[in-house]
Amino acid sequence: MAKIYFGTAGWSYKDWVGSFYPENQSTKFDWLEFYSQYFNFVEVNSTYYVYVSDKVVRSWLRKVENLDDFIFTIKLHQDFTHKRNYDQQKTKAVNYILEMLDKSERLGCLLIQFPYSFSFNSANADYLRELKELFQNFKCFVEVRHKSWINKNAIESLQQLDLGFTTIDQPQIGEALSFEPVVINQKAYIRFHGRNAEAWKKSIWQLPDNFGKEQTYQERSERYNYLYSPGELVEFEQIIRPLLNMVKELYIIFNNHPKGDAVANCFQLINMLENRKVKVPQTTLAKYPQLSEIAL
Questions:
Q1: pTM score > 0.90 for this model?
Q2: Are 161 and 128 in contact (CB under 8 A)?
Q3: Are 90 and 77 in contact (CB under 8 A)?
Q4: 3 — phi, psi (to 5°)?
Q5: Where are the beta strands (DSSP E) in 120-255?
Q6: CA trace torsion 38, 99, 138, 84 (10° rounding)
Q7: Tally of structural domains, the chain
Q8: Distances in whole angstroms, Cα of residue 290 to Cα of each of 51, 229, 259, 263, 286
Q9: Residue 244 maps to which CATH number?
Q10: Between vectors from CA 112 to CA 192 and to CA 242, what angle results, nearest 5°?
Q11: What is the DSSP-derived secondary structure letter of residue 30?
Q12: 216-246 residue pLDDT tens
């Protein structure tokens, strides 16, 4: 039986208050503790922007210590993927937090996410080999967004490096990757970015109109502002279900985080794939009354 981990990309969003987190919070209320009561997996996005301290990681571990199977995926810092400006000290910093989580049996994997411009060629394949050597002690998945990676040679190169492939759903713009799940070494990772095509176009800095523009957090987040419809989720369920006989581990992440849409869609897909009622907080039921049909 495949072990399925469901979660969202990040958990610390102020606009989830009222749609997931309760409005009236006590001083002792903690978002991660609340989140972990509903999902068994979270993707840590902050590690893409900052090198978190061991103190921060220990606080995560304390907040989930009473849960049997809750795990974290760490997104690799942009210094390694977008800027390609890293050194031994930065590499040690990443390995250190991975080791902390791994020793506590809380590590899912390292997510290595590249920009749209990262196409398949020999130079980029060599760079992946370089990164894998830096983090060779840990399970790693690569997220690419260019369709050139969907070919036999690209997948074989990832398999030889023992790198998992991250299947993504995103707006189909230009040379964007389509939603075609790939299983490598009985593992698969799926991320849902939403289908807000207009906002996505504005956020791709490589496009001529966007080159050199610095975007605010809200502008960057707008491309993920999208609620998947029940029909779209049924299509995903039909594509994903056959994978359950092919994998030992399946990671499913919703990144359409604005307003809490990722939470609602994640609950819906859990219901579909696991054929069971889902524990849903009252705040989410109030915002998304359609979930009452699947709620415990």
A1: yes
A2: yes
A3: yes
A4: -90, 120
A5: 140-143, 163-169, 187-192, 249-254
A6: 100
A7: 1
A8: 39, 11, 16, 13, 9
A9: 3.20.20.410
A10: 45
A11: -
A12: 767 778 999 999 999 999 999 999 999 999 9
